[in-house]
Design a protein that fits this description.
8 helices; 4-stranded parallel β-sheet; globular; 38% helix; disordered N terminus; 215 residues
């Protein structure tokens, strides 16, 4: 299925149509990247595919190389969260690429040198050096929004009342923010399509450049 397909596309074996492919980690990352690819006007050049969630995500490349049309892929992008270990996240992606006999880059955002094709580039969110996730990046982009103090006040209240830390703080922040918007039921990928996040924010510069470099 190409980037014009269903917002929460499962892993698919439908033929690959474009010469540039982006593999994302899970549903929310897929929806977010699909929205940004469309915003950049690259949806007829980059095919966005959901590689599934961890830990199965890194095995998706072995399926991908056997899908019809993969032989014509010139550029392959991979994007996932850093979670608690940016270096470990990158190494896990490279190990998955190696199992599929694909080129492995030397560092995040550093494309492999072709041949052999495809050229492979890996991007980690919120950035290649910081532990975190997609929600960390989105929260950074919301800086200055008038709702943010309300979100922090709510989470501080939860901490005080429960005596417990907030699990996955940035995820809780972003979903609390979405809950205060006009469509509070949206998931992150859907919120991205609804333009809840400011695409012109410099916070997204690195990710925009990564996507533009795939074509």
């Amino acid at each position: 299925m190409n980037s014009g397909g269903a917002l929460f596309q499962p892993k698919t074996r439908e033929p690959i149509r474009y010469s540039s492919v982006l593999v994302t980690e899970g549903r929310d990352m897929f929806g977010f990247c699909l929205a940004l690819v469309r915003h950049l006007g690259l949806d007829q050049q980059i095919e966005v595919r959901n590689g599934g969630g961890l830990p199965d995500f890194h095995d998706y490349f072995q399926d991908l190389v056997n899908i019809s049309g993969f032989a014509n892929v010139v550029s392959l992008g991979v994007i996932r969260d850093t979670d608690t270990n940016p270096h470990g996240a990158f190494q896990a992606v490279c190990a998955g690429l190696q199992r599929a006999n694909l080129p492995t880059p030397n560092a995040p955002l550093q494309p492999t040198i072709a041949p052999p094709l495809p050229r492979v580039t890996v991007h980690l969110l919120p950035d290649p050096k910081t532990p975190g996730m997609l929600e960390t990046l989105c929260w950074r982009a919301l800086a200055g929004d008038q709702r943010l103090p309300c979100v922090e006040e709510y989470l501080n209240c939860v901490r005080k009342q429960t005596g417990q830390p907030i699990a996955y703080e940035d995820k809780s922040r972003v979903y609390s923010y979405i809950a205060g918007r006009e469509q509070p039921w949206l998931l992150l990928g859907q919120a991205a399509h609804a333009n809840f996040f400011p695409w012109t924010s410099p916070v997204f510069d690195e990710t925009r450049s990564f996507l533009q470099g795939l074509v």
